[in-house]
Amino acid sequence: MLGRLACVILIGMAVPIQAVAADFTLGNWNIQTLVYPGDPKTVFPDDHIRSSQDYADLVHWRDAVSADVLFLQEATSPAALDAVFPVAQGWEHCISGQFAEAEGQSIAPVCTKKGMTAIKPTTATRVQYPAVALRPNSQLKLISAADYKPLDVTFDDNGTIRRIRWGLDVTIQSPAGPTLRVLDVHLKSGCFDDFISFRLWNTDPATGQPASRACDTLASRCIPLGNGSRRARLPASRG
Q: Residue 107 — pLDDT band, cuts 50, 70, 90?
């Protein structure tokens, strides 16, 4: 399915990939400001505090989709991912290197596998990041996850300059050997009922000033998003 969110991107909840004698399914899921159970902090002050039943419901829908790989948006930490995709059960997941940067670690996606501990955030606030999760016993392999930093466009939030999320460039491999690169993108929210300036579609955000309108910020990501789309197909979410 094709959707228009400032530029043409590939989105979908269940996208089958054909390989030799097998079908594989990729899923895309904006998992809504996911924090780990018992986290004393939320992304936004009015966030719903999830109960144990809420996490059980997330697991239910995870399995109902039954995707081999899930590309995610709005995860706040490896520990938050592990609440829904536990490495103890064989899941493997990676989160954007922006999380590592915020934690003062070497800047690279943080990947957690079986036998490892999914770390909790230590920062004073919770921030949303893109992530990817690979189902246990999937015949697909998660070959690599890399940050796509050009999507980090700043915007002017009532005088406070804020940053936008990086993309997560993921390579997966089928048993037959072919690989697929997917750019996991979480677009700027807030552009619901206003126009998008076509001028900004052709303006490199690195050369301009941070925009104060959400629609302008969304449009300013089109050049880096277009450059990224030449490298990969794009499951995406806006929120």
A: very high
In this structure, the chain runs to a length of 239
Among residues 182, 23, 164, the alpha carbon closest in space to that of 94 is found at 182
Question: Rounded to an integer, what distance in angstroms lies between the CA atom of residue 103 and that of residue 120?
Answer: 10
Tokens at 6, concatenated: 């400032």
Q: What is the mean pLDDT of residues 84-96?
A: 98
Q: Residues 215, 201: contact at Cβ < 8 Å?
A: no
Q: What is the pTM of this model?
A: 0.82
For residues 186 and 179, give the distance between their C-alpha atoms in angstroms, rounded to a whole number: 23
Radius of gyration (C-alpha) of the chain in whole angstroms: 18
Three-class secondary structure of residue 83 per DSSP = helix
Could you give the CA distance from residue 167 to residue 197 in angstroms, rounded to a whole number? 23
Determine the Cα–Cα distance for residues 54 and 96; give it in Å rounded to an integer.
24
**Alpha carbon distance 225, 183 (integer Å):** 9
